[in-house]
Amino acid sequence: MPARKRQTSKRKAEEPAKDAVNKKKDKREAASVDQREVGHVLTLGQGDVGQLGLGEDTLERKKPAIVKGLDDLEIVQVECGGMHTVALTDSGKVYTWGCNDEGALGRVTSSENGEEFTAGPVQDIESVNVVMVSAGDSHTMALSDQGTVYGWGTYRDASGQVGLQADGVKHKPTVILTLQNNPIIKIASGNDHTVALTKDGNIFTWGCAEQGQLGRIMGCFTSRGGRRGLQYILNPKQVRDKKRLTFKDIFCGSYSTFAVSQYGAVYAWGLNNYGQLGTGDLETLYAPTKVEALTSLISDNNKCVSIASGQHHTIVLDSSGKVYAMGRAEYGRLGLGEDAKETTSPVLVAALEWNPICKIACGEAVSLAVSSKGDLYSWGFGSCLQLGTGEDEDEFSPVKVEGKNLQSELHEVLGVSAGGQHTALLVKDRK
């Protein structure tokens, strides 16, 4: 089942954290991000805590709708957290909306004024040029052009809230990770953990460790009450491997992490109870482990482009535009047809083979893909209306998503992200 809905009643906000964002830029080499196209944001699905950004009167959308509060902004990235949404502008500014019970928006909001239901700027980070954002269930991360990671919100484990850092929840941006002479170049978030990749190819992780998703803590020490405690899981630490591997890309699932080595091999760690890591078995992994099936599938001439993973399933995109799926099949999330069974190794999503894909995303039990033509396809769990089909039925094979605000001849999808109950799109008008 997809993640259970959290209580939507608003708790009294804690006093904002006093951590001040250091506004003085250092002279380290900046993190670089490829030039990106700008577009406008569409959302769909369920929005009872404001995650759609469509105002208090719109609690669900069966088809994509434009987030009006961002009309005058040039958006280059949009990411869904569990019950909140984050957008990044071309000028490096961050906007958020949705559930703010645990500080995930990074700004003070008033539930009486409906401020969580509309997009608003994260003002305490406005002096920083942000080049990338990521979001989890109750946290948000931002990467600056100087290679510094900022964050706000909290992580959670099976016992509840654990804080963003050892001293608790952060309601405003605070510096999480900065390294001298080795800037962070990419960040990714799972439900309750974060992964960062440095320019030199090293990986740092922090957050909840219970399912092995940090890749650096033995199974017997992964709980917050273990010998190492909160400091060890919440402080960013490097993932070390006996082979001294270096990496060129990272991806997060809900409770898993994937990394691509400098030589193109795929490694994984974390929850594997449905075979979502692709290792051929159901063993949870607590350290980087080479995924032979994916590595052999992707040759030197056909590289791994992207990996997206939900609660219990994973989809993989290669450089030829083909998509592969593995893990739990229930609700159609693998896109392999109604009779598909759980698979512990990658299987080609044949329904997309004729249409090269350039981007992929997963929600808890949904999958989405953007074609090279800019069309959107979706499949999986339909009850939360995340698929954009206009119905609440599950889809067992990819279906093309269209609507008034998403017409193939008029609109091109640039990016897609899915949360616990909603989906966000970055779309531009075709010339």
| CATH superfamily label | Regulator of chromosome condensation 1/beta-lactamase-inhibitor protein II
Poorly predicted runs are 1-28
Residues in helices, as a percent range: under 10%
Sheet-strand content, in percent, reads 35-45%
Average pLDDT taken over every residue: 90
Q: Assign an overall shape.
A: globular
Level-2 CATH architecture:
7 Propeller
Give the biggest beta sheet. 4 strands, antiparallel
Secondary structure tally, helices:
2
Strand sequence of the main sheet, in spatial order?
2-1-30-29
Distance between the termini: 41 Å
Write down the CATH class: Mainly Beta
Q: How many separate structural domains?
A: 1
> What structural class do helix, strand and pairing data support?
mainly beta
Number of strands: 30
Organism: Stylophora pistillata
GO molecular function: guanyl-nucleotide exchange factor activity
Domain RCC1-like: 40-424
Keywords: Guanine-nucleotide releasing factor, Repeat
